[in-house]
DNA sequence: GACCAGTTGTATCGCACCGATACATCGGAG
DNA sequence: CTCCGATGTATCGGTGCGATACAACTGGTC
């Protein structure tokens, strides 16, 4: 139970370091994961509500602070992690189940690698790799069995898809090798977490 | 009005040459568009129902044919295009609006290129190209502005995303050049539509 | 100082789609 | 003969998306 969905995880991750408004969460997430995967408010706000209900985050409704006119203060709601949220994030970051290398989950998981320990990183990368290998198999299979009933365009589409997957795999191979040869610390790379 | 959604278009396309059952539709579509984009029954059947209601397709409920026992005949429903459906498909294939190069529509549109005239093909490819160019811009922008607040992993994710888009664009460039230098017929390539 | 456009910000509604699931029949392998 | 996997139709709950509405602050321009 308590299956943490991807969106929830992403939000937990983005709130790890500072409290943020809904709007900022959306922007940050969009920036970190690329312009694809931009989540809409239609998913964000309901998810935030769910998380508040579950006690993972809490909302701080920025009070007027002082004897300002009356009521006109603009509504801004900053969300921050609760202890429960922080715990859940830690649990989630330590896990490496199949749900870590699903198509839609992997990116989010990867973007949190800086806060994931080395062993888990490696397991996720390998899991993702093997998932993509299966896929490669499938596509190659289909492409071979495609002798009959094929026009040039659908064939080209297949070929292109195949290449995409191959490329993705070799990207993972690079990362995996990198992980293996690295000191194994929690925070590799030249950039020291930013101060 | 009468906005044809992608799924509807895909089905119209797959039924162009022969009537098929829901199950077969799903398999074919999955095979043509790759293992990604495999649509689930949860979308397929409702869509088929909608299409029947709209008069685009009709269902032929394979009757027992003869004095077979009683009722045991397995339910199999073959769907075929109506004249309206055929017309709609033709309209859709002749159009080349922004909805032709959306992320989710392009593949389907492309897989129907064998039945699309040369001018439309070119326009769609170019539309897709320019859409991806915009995206490239965005990502590059974000990557540049990423000096502050970046760990090695999110940076790598960005870099990888950037490369993906670049590759996609050069794939399109190849296709576009190919289109331009080709005879301009409706059915290029060595494969003669299959007999 | 008046106006207008763009950004920040919260929020909801309908719709389409996915994943899981249930059920039934058929062909073949053990 | 029986079990398994493919074929086949169908629905349900949940969830994410796109569009949209509303509101206040920000900054530029005449």
Shape of chain A: globular
Question: Based on the structure, what is the oligomeric state of the protein chains?
Answer: homodimer
Our estimate of the beta-strand percent of chain A is: 5-15%
Using the 3D structure, state the CATH architecture of the largest domain in chain A.
Orthogonal Bundle
Over all CA atoms, what is the radius of gyration of chain A? 21 Å
Q: What's the arrangement of strands in the largest beta sheet of chain A? A: 1-3-2
Mean pLDDT of chain A: 84
Reading the helices and strands of chain A in chain order gives HEHHEEHHHH
Low-confidence stretches of chain A: 64-71, 188-195
Structural class of chain A: mainly alpha
Q: Note the total helix count of chain A.
A: 7
Number of domains of chain A: 2
Biggest contact: A-B, 41 and 41 residues
């Amino acid at each position: 139970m308590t299956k943490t969905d991807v969106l929830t995880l992403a939000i937990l991750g983005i709130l790890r370091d500072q409290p943020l408004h809904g709007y900022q969460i959306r922007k940050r997430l969009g920036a970190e994961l690329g312009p694809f995967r931009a989540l809409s408010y239609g998913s964000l706000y309901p998810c935030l509500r769910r998380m508040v209900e579950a006690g993972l985050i809490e909302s701080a409704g920025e009070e007027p602070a002082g004897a300002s006119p009356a009521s006109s203060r603009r509504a801004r709601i900053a969300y921050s992690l609760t202890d429960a949220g922080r715990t859940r994030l830690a649990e989630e970051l330590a896990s490496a189940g199949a749900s870590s290398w699903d198509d839609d989950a992997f990116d989010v998981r990867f973007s949190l690698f800086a806060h994931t320990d080395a062993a888990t990183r490696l397991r996720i990368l390998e899991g993702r790799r093997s998932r993509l290998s299966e896929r490669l198999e499938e596509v190659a299979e289909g492409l071979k069995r495609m002798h009959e009933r094929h026009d040039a365009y659908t064939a080209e589409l297949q070929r292109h898809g195949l290449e995409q997957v191959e490329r993705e795999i070799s990207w993972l191979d690079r990362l995996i090798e990198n992980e293996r040869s690295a000191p194994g610390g929690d925070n590799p790379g030249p950039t020291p977490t930013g101060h």
